[in-house]
Amino acid sequence: MALTGTFLCLFLVIHLLGNLQLLLPADRARASFNWYSHLLSGNVLIKLIEWLLFVSILAHIVYALLLTLRARKASGRGYVYDKRKASSTWNSRNMGFLGMIILLFLVLHLKDFWYRYKFGNLPLDEQGYTDLYAIVVAAYEEFWYVLLYLAGIAALGFHLLHGFSSAARTLGLYHPLYSKVVRVAGKLYTLAITAGFMIIPVYIYFNKA
Amino acid sequence: MKIHLKIWRQDERDGPGGMVSYTLDDVTEDMSFLEMLDALNGVLIGKGERVIEFDHDCREGICGQCGLMINGRAHGPLPHVTTCQLHMRSFRDGDTIYIEPFRAAAFPVLRDLKIDRSAFDRIIQSGGYIAAGTGSAPEANSILVAHDTAEAAFDAAACIGCGACVATCKNSSAALFVSAKTVHLSLLPQGKLEAPQRVNAMIAQMNAEQFGPCSNTEACEVECPQQISVLHIARMNWAFNKSRLLGRKG
Ligand code: HEM
Ligand code: FES
Fold first, then answer.
1. DSSP code of B188?
2. What is the model's pTM?
3. A71, A77, A92: residue with CB nearest B216
4. Which residues 6+ apart lie within 8 Å of B38 measured at CB?
5. So what's the ipTM on this one?
6. Domain ends where: B111, B127, B145?
7. Which DSSP letter does residue A115 get?
8. Which of A27, A158, B93, B179 could cross-link with A91 by S-S, CB 3.0 to 4.6 Å?
């Protein structure tokens, strides 16, 4: 859980950095983003990482299911009057629910961009690269689509807010000072990731021609 | 004060049970929570009814025998106190108080509010000790322990094994208890040698007892009467992961 989660966290950084090219002025964004996508899709290393990502997400979900089942079995008969939620944060108790929203979001996300880029028949740009930029912009010009994205990314944010520091604990970071450092780093990381991924669709929506 | 109570009653292990309502007059603020239950039992005896069974021993917050879910919180509304150290001044006249046993598959209810916590004993038996015969007490300064290390070991050893961590955890995980019991030994020179074997044996027993997985919600530390830090769990994970990586499972 912690290993796959941490790997996914790492991936998000790279993914965001690449996507930030979408914030360039339209012409430069198109050229740069399409060139970058082309570069990635032709790279063996990226192919490998893509597979690793799929395996990680799958393993993460399988572990999540196993953990949830074990926890359910361990809980036995619940309480008639239950106020236990006062002693922990909402997101830490609802990682499975948040994960499910992320999963739904991922299906939509992969179907609309990854699948179409790989298997769809897309137009080429002036450089002769597949024009992924055009579909991204077209998607984000829809109001409801932007809303869906914001919701998915918000779920991811709450998942990370607990997941980042939780993973460090599961792996065994017990030093009081470094634990605090990681907790703060987790918050900053979550803020950067959610803000970064949210700005892109919003920026494109408000800059549509 | 007049207090309304809703208390879990159950006749036998694995039997059916349910909440039963009682009203108790003449409760004073100075009564401890358990004295209030004693008073209620006095009334029940007077009526010829079966008394409400609950665990307790020292009634001074050190033995870990008492433990009730009070108004949906382990050991009641105050932070870091045992049920026996809770007093009726924490409640108001006319309040309704829900009282239930600590719940977990690994803690079967024996009767009413009394649970079987022998799963904790079996975890200790699996490795919560030092195997070497140590003889009688040696000269205190013959094995030097740095002050900070001794303090850290004491912090972990303060766990009284009440089970509130399990009761409050959404996963019914015993990670806080097991971590306190592994860490306090493995910090000290005598306990260090068997640390990898100990952590593996105790975690294996914890899983065999059907406690759930830890997902770091940290509810356990919030409810723990001894304020055992969740960082002990991380320390246990570290010892466990390290022993696996180095192939030293014991
Ligand atoms: C980009 C996507 C994702 C990232 C970066 C991510 C990251 C993480 C991290 C770092 C953890 C903490 C691991 C630990 O404490 O040991 C975690 C836990 C978890 N994740 Fe994810 N995750 C993602 C997607 C998902 C999905 C799609 C699901 C479910 C369908 C999911 C369900 C869970 C569950 C149930 C936990 C366990 C939480 C707990 O221990 O209470 N995650 N995730
Ligand atoms: S009765 Fe001993 S701790 Fe409460």
1. S
2. 0.93
3. A92
4. none
5. 0.92
6. B111
7. I
8. A158
